[in-house]
Design brief:
This protein is α+β, with helices and mostly antiparallel strands. It is built from nine helices and nine strands.
């Protein structure tokens, strides 16, 4: 009789995470507020999307939220913390993830921020379209490997409010430079669609796919939404600040056929550079 497949429980996952954090992000503590307790509370709060204070209240014989925050603030160098976090992430990646040619994706993520930031927080509070009752957000960017329709995060960076999209997309590859992998194709979200980012990615010959932002009433990228068949073309995007860049565009026509109460054609438009798939397969590959 075969042994049952191993099961990852909440407690074993918690033990693995706290052990990894203790090794890579050491904290000087004393008394009841030891490293393991601090990281356990932070991990539980993050996993539940809860506050540190409320997490402390739901646990027994643990320090108060103010004590945990006191130890958090011992790390006030974001670059140092970022490097340690990425070391922790990459330390336990399986060899099949970090070796060979892989499909890579990069995302921008926003976490709603409320209140008035202190001087340490202020550089990392970005403004964006209103969401969840605020226009202020913590921002971070992630890089992950896409393998067998699953994703594994391999790097993360904090985004400053004075950073441009091109500086972010330039920093991300640096965080994975120590891994023995080659980029088969880079999938990036629409937040990176801009003249300098496309120019930056084409220069080192990196294959990429990113959605095109539709602009203009009749001209601009809106002129690409035509006909009833998928097609390929070339488009030149202009920017008053950054000049112009020319790139390939693939347009996929999707027929709703009454699904979700919708009818007619939906256009999916992608800016591409040497993508390793066909026009027919790009929608599935990006999704």
């Amino acid at each position: 009789m075969k042994n049952p497949a191993p099961a990852l429980t909440d407690e074993t996952a918690l033990e693995e995470v706290t052990a990894c954090l203790k090794k890579n992000i050491p904290l000087e503590t004393q008394g009841a507020c030891d490293q393991k307790t601090v990281f356990e509370i932070l991990t539980r709060a993050a996993a539940a999307g809860d506050s540190v204070e409320n997490t402390c209240r739901t646990m027994q014989d643990v320090p108060c939220g103010a004590n945990i925050h006191y130890h958090q603030e011992k790390y006030n160098d974001m670059n140092e913390l970022e490097n340690k976090i990425n070391k922790a992430i990459q330390e336990r990646l399986p060899p099949r993830i970090v070796n060979g040619e892989q499909s890579i994706a990069a995302d921008l993520n926003l976490i709603p921020y409320y209140g008035r930031p202190n001087p340490k927080e202020a550089p990392y509070i970005v403004r964006s379209q209103a969401k969840a009752g605020t226009c202020a957000f913590y921002a971070y960017a992630t890089v992950y490997v896409i393998r067998k329709n699953k994703r594994v995060t391999i790097a993360i960076i904090a985004v400053r409010n004075d950073e441009t999209a091109v500086s972010i997309i330039t920093r991300l590859p640096d965080k994975i430079s120590g891994l023995n992998l080659r980029i088969a194709c880079l999938y990036i979200d629409r937040g990176f669609f801009s003249v300098p980012v496309i120019r930056r990615l084409k220069a080192p010959d990196i294959p990429f796919v990113t959605p095109v932002i539709i602009r203009g009433k009749n001209g601009g990228t809106r002129q690409l939404l035509r006909g009833g068949r998928s097609y390929k073309t070339v488009y030149t995007m202009h920017s008053q600040k950054y000049g112009a860049v020319t790139f390939d565009v693939w347009i996929v026509c999707v027929y709703s056929k009454g699904r979700y109460g919708k009818h007619g054609i939906k256009y999916l438009v992608y800016a591409v550079y040497k993508p390793p798939m066909s026009l027919k397969g790009i929608q599935k590959a990006y999704r």
